[in-house]
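Risk register update: the risk of archive-format incompatibility is retired. Evidence:
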Amino acid sequence: GECHNADFINQHNSHYTDAVKIECSACHADGGKITLAPGTMNPNGTINRDALKIRVPSNANCLACHGVGSVKGKEVFIPDDFPGALINYEGGKCFRVTCKTGEILSPENISDSLMNIKDRDTLAFPWDVHLQREVMCVSCHFTRNDPRRAETRVSDQEHLANDPRKSYSIGKYLYIPDHRLLHADCRTCHTPEKKHDFLTYKDRHFEILSCQSCHVPRLYGPALKSVDETVITAGGGPRYEFRARNTANGKNLNTAYTEGFQPFLLSHNEEKPGAEEITGVKDGISPVNLMIRWHWTDGSGKAVPFELVKGVYLDGKKYRADIINAFDADKSGGIEPHELRLDTKEKIDFIRKRLAAAGVKVPLITGSVEPYRINHDIAHEKSIAPDCLACHSGESRFGAGVELASFRPAGAEMNQSGSAAMSGLLFHLDGTIKTENSKMRLVKDGSVTGRYVFGYSSITWLNVLGALILLMSIAGAAGHGALRYLAQRGVEPKHTNLVRVKVYALYERIWHWGMALSVIVLIITGLEIHYAGSFTLMGFEIVVDVHNFFAALVTLNAGLSLFYHLATGEIMQYIRVRKGFRGEVIVQAAYYLYGIFRGTGHPFEKTQERKLNPLQQLTYFALLNVLFPVQIMTGIMMWLVSIWPEFSSAIGGLTVIAPVHNFFAWLFITFLAVHLYLITTGHTVFSNLIAMITGTEEMEEGESARIARDSLSGVKLPDIIENIRKIALKAIRGKE
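Archived output:
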């Protein structure tokens, strides 16, 4: 207190609160306490400063309270008192880092631990690569006003975000060190942009995805899966269930076999800006452990104090006689672990009566899901295999079901509103909680809250609608083709005078085939991206780049085409509407539905001035003015989202534009399928195709087209139906 402002430190200290009051020596003295050897006192009664051994907090100081681990040269093992004090109490030796997340804080190799881990001998890499490289806990968890940390320096001048005059001198800092420790982000030390070349969009990944999402591939520590505070064990604590370990209540955790578990990825955003972190992902995706907690509440929803529940079960350190009678199903005289659960209505009613007698109004069992963000156990880069499909596929980590508990107390209600807050972070649980054989699982609904993940996210009804439109179009084309074949079978072709006409210029043909190739590649690569993992042609890392290249090519081709059509006047092919256009549309429809089956010639002559029939003109007008622009604009917007964070925030990310882009892709596939069929409706099956290659086409003389128009102008719907009936009858009789 003579050298430091103790009052200021205590008021600005995350280790000195109403729940816990940690002494200075617990962090700043070797071994957590000050021991004075004989002869260390000076004659004037003061202590020789060399004997105090006051220092910066070591990793051993932090491990004394926060988690399971070891210092260099020591094997890792789980102590007998794990998880120690109740995890809902913030004070004491509670190992809360390990029990909430499964993180082990040690520089040693996993293969050297004393735990029973699957293939342990092959895990010759450290629990945490930072600890192996002697990075201190205080390197990331440092005081807010440390003058060595320029990015956290607070200025005496309110108008300056960072004061270069270093207003916090060493002397001032030592007098009033702010002990509200910060949680530094990876970017405090690392520049990830200089690596990760396999990522297509680096900035986008680093913007919304925490480094731990990939760099913590698996956790082998004893993470809690469920805490059942509705019952009390003989040791006076709740009933614990650990993830990836078939054991409970901290017994035999070293010998219990485990394969570890892969952390669960969830979206989050920061509820209290600046509360915990200084840099990095504030609104994105991070790995978490999900823990479910069962506890008693009263009628108002307020939690029943644990000590009160404990008093219902125990008399001192022993179970009350009536508790043994209620839970001892095999009449052994004691309560076995499998008997210590509220699995019947009788047990529930019994405990409710005892709680009511203790003053609890309307006792109820409530369950809540608590997500705990994972920050430690960073793996060495050589032990991480980059795999885009781990997230970008139908088997994505986002879609993995999560078992929350193997047992659900009878009649328990879930106090789950779709989110849970922890450490200033608001986590969104993507799915609904369901029960199956008394087990609790988080069943994902195929979405990621506020995010669209390529290869995983999709809107089912849009995909179904797009697929139905495509299938109906293919079925219509197939049916139309079958009727053409049946109608023309056995009929001698009519001999008409044909003339060769120059229809398509060289640029038009180059544009057409360039666009056709690009669109086909875009469809194929788009399908591989959208259904990543279902089939692989190029691999996700390559297919995105290929898709982007051809998207840029289509955009460039479309721009050049627009210039060409404007400069040459060819734009009028698509927008000129002649007098009687509506009637021409009806005549052209009658040709496809009636005349084509009867051998009638094309009702409109194709010339350089009029290359499109009325229905083609309508189709290409919609294609070039709606389908192409929407697809190009949404594609550009998706690209901008990936490289421009401000733009992404302004439009809400990909959640809207990506589904629109996907649906219009279905319409493009539908157009391509119908277009390929309609190519065969020329003078011959291949005449239209040859014309687009050579530029010239053999066509009937103009008089034939006029005669065809006259013959089709009076066709009505009954005529069409009757003609189709005759074709079908002809086919049946021919078969007989």
